[in-house]
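hi! just following up on the protien thing from before. the input was this:
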Amino acid sequence: MGIVNLLLDTCTFLWLAQQPDKISVTASKLIDNTDNELYLSQVSVLEIVMKHSAGKLPLPDAPRKWISSKLRFHQVTDFPLTKEVMFHSGELPRVHADPFDRLLAAHAIIEGFTLLSPDKPFSNLGASRIW
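and the predicted 3d structure came back as:
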């Protein structure tokens, strides 16, 4: 398969950090392969911060500290959100309405990443996805 640039879905990042047993065998192998590059979109950072502040996502520490710590520990690169990704998210087919998922799909498409996610709607949006 060669080197794969993997964009972690928000749930994949959370599971990697807190509940790795929820990650599929295929996804675990890809994560553990040190030739692959792991990325987390700033879209996921925003999603985690918003859910935490709304009381829907408990974390052991403030998101500012916790996310940074987990990115370093798991050697995941924080990837910036661009206007092009935002524009492209609005141009995707209207098959899935969740704005975070639409932005993640657009991010994967624009950057040529493969999304590491159990969520099938990403494929419907045109993103390459493995689970």
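The mean pLDDT is 95.
The chain has one domain: 12-130.
cheers
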